[in-house]
Design brief:
Length: 366
């Protein structure tokens, strides 16, 4: 599973980035910083029924424990707690959620995990901790809307969000300690405020890089990118035209260079991570059947992009990867991996994605 999705470089390949990219990337990062700062300092709260609120409130480990003991206790109970919440993990298949982050019309998969992280750093720099990583979403606009459960764009589709539960609770513990250190008489912020002002804004780091994958796929397929239906109460510099020109140049270069799949991902620069290869990594977790369906759905857009970018004969440089892809897809079909966890329409959409990738990867079989 991870061999297919966390592709391992066979060798570093020459990467050419258009000269305009550095200015575009710096601008996107400035916009991102502006959005995150605004939501961190603006009063706001999610609903008390939000799954993250319920998740935090369900952890009954005393905040008074030392940091190390607190983390160890949360880590020990994390996956069982996520199972009780019907989230997907390496021990439980979970369910499809409806628009908790991206609004009604989005089928969302919440994947709980306990990947290792720097405990001291997450506690010390808790405002910048990223316990939630967006592994897939449907948006291609650059507005960087907060994933607060409201429908704010022209595009709908599937989303996959990885939740590092121990990191989330370490961040919450540090947040609570900060609240106690504030001046006496000042009301402490609630869990709903914590989620809205710190957890959701920090999702924008990974959300932006996934947006760039979606945007270059729109250019690749010659379809228009989406647009946002909600603007921020401040102006953001529009980099969409310059970004599209830059990515068009990159797509032309990829078509001429004949790179393998990993080289294609390395050849597309990202805004937060260095490139798409870094941005596409999955959390380290046991690749069990219970979670495999969710991780597969998370990375189908990436596979579609690299197979399409490899040209009319993708097997010329990627035969080993295509053989692995064919074996894996066949295994999923025989095991009926996606059955019983989603409705008929969503299931058919996933099967159509798989068939489209398989057809592009094996042009001789069309």
């Amino acid at each position: 599973m991870h061999a297919l999705f966390n592709l391992t470089p066979r060798s570093l390949q020459g990467i050419q980035v258009p000269g305009a990219w550095h200015t575009i990337r710096a601008g996107l990062r400035r916009n991102l910083g502006q959005v995150i700062r605004y939501y961190r300092h603006t009063p706001g709260a999610v609903k008390s029924s939000h799954p993250l609120v319920k998740l935090v409130q369900s952890v009954d480990v005393p905040l008074s424990l030392t940091l190390e003991r607190y983390h160890a206790n949360v880590d020990a109970m994390a996956l069982n707690l996520s199972m009780a919440m019907k989230m997907t993990s390496s021990i439980y298949r979970g369910k499809i959620w409806n628009g908790e982050f991206y609004g009604v019309g989005h089928d969302e998969i919440l994947v709980a995990h306990t990947e290792y992280f720097d405990l001291a750093l997450a506690h010390r720099d808790w405002r910048n901790a990223t316990p939630l990583r967006v592994l897939r979403h449907a948006r291609s606009d650059l507005e960087m809307n907060l994933p607060d459960g409201h429908f704010t764009g022209s595009e709908t589709g599937m989303a996959v969000i990885a939740i590092n539960l121990p990191m989330l609770m370490v961040q919450y513990r540090a947040f609570r300690e900060e609240e106690k250190r504030r001046a006496a008489g000042v009301d402490e912020k609630s869990v709903t405020m914590f989620v809205h002002r710190f957890v959701l804004p920090n999702m924008l780091f990974s959300q932006l890089d996934q947006t760039l994958l979606n945007r270059i796929r729109c250019l690749q397929a010659r379809v228009p990118a989406g647009w946002s239906t909600r603007k921020h109460p401040f102006a953001l510099t529009d980099y969409s035209t310059r970004l599209d020109h830059c990515y068009e140049e990159i797509l032309v270069g990829l078509s001429k260079q004949g790179k393998n799949f990993i080289g294609i991902l390395q050849g597309v620069p990202a805004a937060v991570r260095q490139n798409l290869e870094e941005a596409m990594h999955l959390p380290a977790m046991a690749p069990t059947r219970q979670v495999m369906w969710a991780l597969a759905i998370a990375r189908l857009p990436m596979l579609d992009f690299v197979v399409s970018a490899a040209g009319e004969h993708p097997g010329a440089r990627n035969q080993a990867e295509i053989n692995l892809l064919n074996r894996t897809f066949l295994g999923w079909q025989q095991e009926r991996l996606f059955d019983g966890v989603m409705d008929a329409l969503t299931h058919q959409a996933v099967i159509d994605e798989l068939d489209g990738i398989r057809s592009k990867a094996n042009p001789a079989r069309r």
